[in-house]
Amino acid sequence: QVQLVESGGGLVQAGGSLTLSCAHSVSMFNLNSMAWYRQASGKERELVASISSLGVTNYASSVKGRFTIFEDNAKNTMYLQMTNLELGDTAVYYCNADLGLRPDLTSLEVWGQGTLVTVSS
Question: Among 19, 76, 92, 95, which one is most buried in terms of CB atoms within 10 A?
Fold first, then answer.
């Protein structure tokens, strides 16, 4: 079972930058993909960015061009580099690992504990 630990959240002014880290206990080569999700107060959790084991990335339209997801395989750490932050980016950010399917064909996913990002004006 993979374990995920997020870090790097904090308070930042709008227009500023922040980089989140997700340390994972299992090599990404043993995973289908990893992703960053976020959940703002009163809203549902949403996908922010994902990266496959082959390095293919995808981004939510709201963050495309501002956020970058990447993996440091040597450190077993995934990052979310956030720039030009907006008030709407305020949320708890969660690291996610997709391990594939269970025998009943449901998705097997592991979540980190979350790290809070607060963007101020």
Answer: 95
Question: Beta-carbon neighbour count of residue 112 at 10 Å?
Answer: 21
Q: What is the pLDDT of residues 31-66, one digit of tens each?
A: 999 999 999 999 999 999 999 999 999 999 999 999
What pLDDT score does 33 carry?
Answer: 94
Burial class (CB in 10 A: 0-12, 13-18, 19+), 60: middle
Other beta carbons within 10 Å of 109: 14
Cα gap 70→105, rounded to integer Å: 28
d(C-alpha 116, C-alpha 67), whole Å: 16
Backbone angles phi, psi at 65, to 5 degrees: 90, -15
Contact between 69 and 80 (Cβ < 8 Å): yes
Cβ atoms of 80 and 20 closer than 8 Å: yes
CB neighbourhood size of 56 (10 A): 9
